[in-house]
Design a protein that fits this description.
It contains 6 helices and 10 strands, in the order βαββαβββαβββααβα. Helix 1 packs across helix 2, helix 3 packs across helix 4 and helix 3 runs parallel beside helix 5. The protein has 2 domains: about 100 residues, 2-Layer Sandwich (Alpha-Beta Plaits), CATH 3.30.70.580; about 130 residues, Pseudouridine synthase I, catalytic domain, C-terminal subdomain (Alpha-Beta Plaits). The chain is globular. By secondary structure, it is of the alpha+beta class.
Length: about 260
């Protein structure tokens, strides 16, 4: 008897502090491997979990999205509960639901929203040290906002990618780029369909260089024009970065079960 394959979509939260990143690796702990191992025990078969964002070592997520194919008849809520009983406490499945078999968490995403968190005061954070990058120097927020306006929109972001980036397409549209400050806390929000390797962290590093008046606003424009990074722009640490959420076209995630379909 043929067993119908089901596609389960997960909303995932994790603290990336002690992991090598999202992607499975042979000799280092990863978010993907931890969840796959737990899911395998729950659905009693080997599964491959696809993630919307391949977050780097130390990067966190409040809204990572993943999906996997399974022949299990377990209800999504049972899968969620079972997985959460197995994975470490720094990983949590927030939601689980069935989606069309053709849905793919990475390929179907139309917007990824990241937030970079900065603690801007002389003393570094104690309680929040794993979630906020520390910048002890004075930052000119108005200049940073001007820099954000330059980078917002459609540009060639070749100057804003890490050396290991192999992407052929570097022209992207930065849909959202906002900076908010409340006392010593600065949040930088960036949203784009896809990001180049280290792109978000280099963009924030550029803004910090602008805010410290180490580089001019014209230098930011030149980075776009010449596709070369300014020598005074650094890649900010990963622990300040959080994947906040991922958006999809409604038709990609809308599942309409047949009357004969049971979720066990």
């Amino acid at each position: 008897m043929h067993t119908r394959q089901r596609n389960i979509k997960l909303l995932i939260e994790y603290d990336g502090t002690r992991y090598s990143g999202w992607q499975r690796q042979k000799n280092a702990p990863s978010i993907q491997a931890e969840i796959e191992a737990a899911l395998g025990k729950v659905v009693q078969e080997r599964v491959t979990l696809y993630g919307a964002g391949r977050t780097d070592a130390g990067v966190h997520a409040l809204g990572q999205v993943g999906n996997f194919i399974t022949a299990s008849r377990l209800a999504p809520q049972s899968i969620k509960k079972g997985c959460n009983s197995i994975v470490p406490a720094d990983i949590r499945i927030l939601e689980a639901c069935e989606v069309p078999v053709g849905f793919h968490a990475r390929h179907d995403a139309i917007l990824r929203w990241y937030r970079y968190q900065i603690m801007n005061r002389p003393e570094g954070p104690a309680l929040l040290r794993h979630y906020y990058a520390h910048v002890p120097y004075g930052l000119d927020i108005e200049r940073m906002e001007e820099g954000a306006r330059i980078l917002r929109g459609r540009h060639n972001f070749a100057a804003f990618r890490g050396q290991q980036c192999t992407a052929r397409r570097t022209v992207l549209t930065l849909e959202k780029f906002e900076i908010q400050r409340q006392e010593s806390i600065i949040h930088v929000d960036l949203a784009c369909r896809s990001f180049l390797y280290n792109m978000a962290r280099i963009i924030v590093g550029t803004l910090i260089a602008v805010g410290r008046k180490k580089i001019s606003l014209d230098a930011v424009k030149r980075m776009l024009d010449t596709q070369k990074r300014h020598r005074l722009v650094s890649t900010v640490p990963p622990h300040g970065l959080i994947l906040m959420g991922v958006e999809y076209p409604p038709e990609k995630v809308l599942f309409q079960p047949s009357r004969a379909h049971g979720t066990g």
